[in-house]
Amino acid sequence: MTRISTAPTGRQFGDGPLSRITSRVYILLVVEALLLLTTLPGLLPLLLLGRDPSNLPLAALLLVPVGPAVSAALYALRHQRPDLTDLRPAALFWRGYRINVAGALRVWVPMVLWLSVLAVNLAYRDAVGLAGWWVVPLVLIAVGVTLCAANALVITALFDFRTRDVLRLAVHFLVRAPGVTVGNALLLGAAAGITAVFSEAVLALVASIAVLALLRVGDPMIHLIRKEFT
């Protein structure tokens, strides 16, 4: 008796390399547009601010919408399948924004406040009587706070933990996953370089790519959390 094969003999729609590339570009463009839309109320005035140290507290306030937007983008990029027949990055973004906005703000706002206090002290160190040798420790603290916040945003976006547990895990994985920490430090350096050489506007225009990079760098941490804590 002749055996009849039921396996597909050809490539399915949306499986080709061009289709996959097209779907990924589409997802990034949609997420980028939504990132700009949700952060525009803060970013637009921020772009008009001069780079005077006296504007640091106001700049910190204007950056508050960035945290929930990044959290929503992380959620959308993590859960969207690169399938041309099932592309819904906008729906995933808004779902991630809705369920993560409170948790993201609880992580993001303290980080922004900490960084603004450190930046003001560094900018006016002579006026506050801060010795020159304090510059290096304060910069290191600022970097540590930012790296911890990056871990916490990823965890908040993808897992349902209490805020204190999110912060514990974020600090824990600074040491537990050194590759993630180094990768995030490189991303932070690249973002700072783009902002210094060009402007915040250029960084905003590649925000979805930066969020995707943050997600890819955090993959080992995500895997360990899923394996050991969920």
Helix-strand layout with pairing:
Elements: H1 17-48, H2 56-62, H3 66-79, H4 89-123, H5 135-158, H6 163-176, H7 178-197, H8 200-205, H9 207-217, H10 219-228
Describe the protein.
With 230 residues, the protein is mainly α. Helix content is 75%, strand content 0%. The protein has 10 helices and no strands. The protein has helices at 17-48, 56-62, 66-79, 89-123, 135-158, 163-176, 178-197, 200-205, 207-217, 219-228. Helix 1 runs antiparallel to helix 3, helix 3 packs across helix 5 (135-158) and helix 7 packs antiparallel against helix 9 (207-217).
Features:
230 residues, mainly alpha, 75% helix
Please count the helical segments.
Answer: 10
Q: Which runs of at least 5 residues are low in confidence (pLDDT < 50)?
A: 1-13
Mean pLDDT: 86
Task: Quote the distance from N terminus to C terminus.
Answer: 50 Å
Run of helices and strands: HHHHHHHHHH
Percent strand: under 5%
- General form: globular
Give a summary of the structure in a few sentences.
With 230 residues, this protein is mainly alpha-helical. The chain has one domain (17-228).
